[in-house]
Amino acid sequence: MIHKIKKIVEQLSDQEAKSLLLQHFLRIQMLEETNYSEDKFIEGMKKEYEELLKYASESKRQPYHKVHIMFGDSPAGSLRITLPKDEKVIAFSDQFSIGPVNQLHTEKGLEQRKKWLFLHINLDEQYTHTYIEEFQQTIAEIKNISELVPIYIWTANNAHEQTAVRFVIHALKDMRNNIRIINISQNHWSTEAEEYFPLNTGEVTHENLKVVYEANKNIQPLTVQVRNKYAEEWRNLAVTKEVLRIWENDQIKSVPENYFDAYITDRARHLHNKQTNPDFMKSARLIGEVIGHLNQYIGDEFIEYRVRKLILNGVFEIEGVPKAMRFYSVKLKKRS
To answer: Which residues form the DUF3658 domain (predicted)?
Structure first.
């Protein structure tokens, strides 16, 4: 229950939070300076607590005319800025290009995914603690969308979002809602200087998301045949054992987890060549170098995991404690 309350409080606006805090301070002042009893103080606090739960429940029941599904907190936040209040954004806070997806649509599959992430990826303790609960809440939100409300699923040409699209369409297989897919990679992007190609939706500004939405909100919904194709592709993914996926030739490809190891060592060698004498470099510097030159959307957490594996395999020397990338440095071991 404490995690539920924390989530409700985090979703309050600044004004709502300040108002709630002011009420608490006024009650404490009344308790100290008037005949306001402790029993009334406790009764008032309980009433505020009940009203907060009721407010959160009513907010969830607010009618929406359109629902958008996005894969990442950053793009979801950007899209919310641009949308009218009667359009809702549902977001997954997960990285679908990494970790097991074997039977992820089942409780057992979700449990084994959480276990793998906990054992291999340096994630916030609170995130891993509430991972299953929040994942299931997001699925429940999707399955509780009213039947006549159109659904927009946002994606781009990367393994993370394309895997997630297939997972969500499989989850929606028994629902009759019109589903439209907005793929930002199919839109033209340019600045005054050059064309550019964002790897993921999170790289697109809220202004450009609005432009894309206006250009695509009336596209044809997916046909039954296309929906069935996506759902079938999910079922194929859900029997794979690999923990890494890339986007290649317009398809999701499952690859071994050491797929990028040679590239990581190559970028480390490149950074060493810029030094007068090869010396320790912050692991965050190396990971940033890898991510910055990678044409895949994998996420820095997975690359950091592979750096730690390369340390264990004797490829890198380490200085510091690898509890998070900012706490340690690495350098390539000299070849004997």
So the answer is: 218-328
| CA-closest candidate to residue 319, choices 328, 311, 310 | 328
CA distance 169 to 180: 11
Give the C-alpha distances (Å, rounded to integers) separating 243 from 95, 170, 325.
11, 20, 21
List the structure tokens of 43.
């009764």
Q: What is the pLDDT of residues 114-146, one digit of tens each?
A: 999 999 999 888 888 899 999 999 999 999 999
Start-to-end Cα distance in the chain: 57
Beta strands in 170-327 (DSSP E): 179-183, 244-248, 251-255, 281-282, 316-320
Neighbours of 267 (CB within 10 A): 21
Name the least confident of 102-111, 145-154, 200-209: 200-209
212: pLDDT strictly greater than 60: yes
Q: Which CATH class is domain 261-332?
A: mainly alpha
Nearest 5°: CA angle at 112, between 110 and 114?
Answer: 70
- Residue 209 — very low, low, confident or very high, per pLDDT cuts 50/70/90? very high
**Strand (E) or helix (H) holding 124:** none
pLDDT tens digits, one per residue of 61-107: 567 999 999 999 999 999 998 999 899 999 999 999 999 999 999 99
The CA-based angle 328-331-333, given to 5 degrees, is 130
Per-domain residue ranges of the chain: 2-60, 66-253, 261-332
Cα-only R_g, the chain: 24
| Signed CA dihedral, 131, 246, 182, 74: sign only | positive
